[in-house]
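Narrative of accomplishments. A recurring question from our advisory board has been how the design workflow behaves on a single, concrete structure rather than in aggregate. To address it, we present the structure tokens for one chain from the evaluation set, followed by the sequence designed for it. No filtering or post-editing was applied between the two.
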């Protein structure tokens, strides 16, 4: 995070560094939100799989499910 050559104003340098840090924090926050969303989805799928049985399938039933429900085929 250095100032462009020819820029000697410390305030300009500081402003540039602050802008770079804000961009970095924003990107990291977006990445964290995406990771948390993916983990929540996996946790939900795991919970459904742990609770599920061939006789009580969820609306999110997959094509490979062995349940008797045909709702997923529609």
């Amino acid at each position: 995070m250095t100032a462009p050559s020819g820029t000697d104003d410390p305030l300009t340098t500081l402003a540039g560094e602050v802008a770079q840090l804000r961009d970095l924090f924003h990107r990291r926050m977006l990445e964290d939100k995406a990771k948390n969303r993916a983990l929540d989805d996996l946790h939900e799928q795991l919970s459904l799989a742990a609770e599920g049985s061939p006789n009580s399938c969820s609306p999110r039933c997959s094509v490979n499910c062995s349940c008797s429900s045909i709702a997923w085929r529609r």
